[in-house]
Amino acid sequence: QVQLAESGGGLVQPGGSLRLSCAVSGSIANINAMGWYRQAPGRQRELVATITSGGITDYVDSVKGRFTISREYAKNILYLQMNSLKPEDTAVYYCTRGSQYSSGYESEYWGQGTQVTVST
After folding, report:
1. Measured between alpha carbons, how far is 26 from 83 in angstroms, rounded to an integer?
2. Which of 1, 49, 62, 74 could form a disulfide with 69 if both were Cys (CB 3.0 to 4.6 A apart)?
3. Nearest CA to 36 among 2, 9, 75, 12?
4. pLDDT of 2-14, one tens digit each?
C-alpha cells in the first residue's frame, strides 16, 4: 500500500521560509514522478512543482525562483523548500506520487496534506 505523509507546515511571516517533507512508503527510486499540489480556500487546486525520476523539475510560474523540489533517496523523502513566502502561498499542500507524460503530470496517490499559513 502506497503511503505519503507530509510534515513541515506551519505559520510563517511574509518573506520567511519553510521546508515541507513527504515520507514515502517504499523506494522513491522506482517512482516515475512526484509532485506537490496546493489548495487555498475558495480556489482551485494547483500543481506547484514536479520532479521526474531523471531529476527534471518543473514549477508553476508563481513560485519559480522561490520554491525548490528535491528528493532524498536514502530516506525516501520528497521535499519542497519554500523561500520568500507570500500571503498568497497560504494553502494546504499535498504530496503526490504519479507519472510524467508528454501531456503533463498525472497524480495517482495523495498524502493527507499539511497547512501552510503566511501571515503577520
Report:
1. 29
2. 49
3. 9
4. 899 999 999 999 9
Q: What is the pLDDT of residues 66-117, one digit of tens each?
A: 999 999 989 999 999 999 999 999 999 999 999 999 999 999 999 999 999 9
Strand 10-12 and strand 114-118: the pairing is parallel
Q: Which residues, in sequence order, are CB contacts of 55 under 8 Å at separation 6+?
A: none
CA dist 31 and 107 (Å) reads: 11
**Cα separation of 118 and 89, whole Å?**
7
Residue type for position 3: Q
CB-CB contact of 87 with 119 (8 Å)? yes
Neighbours of 71 (CB within 10 A): 18
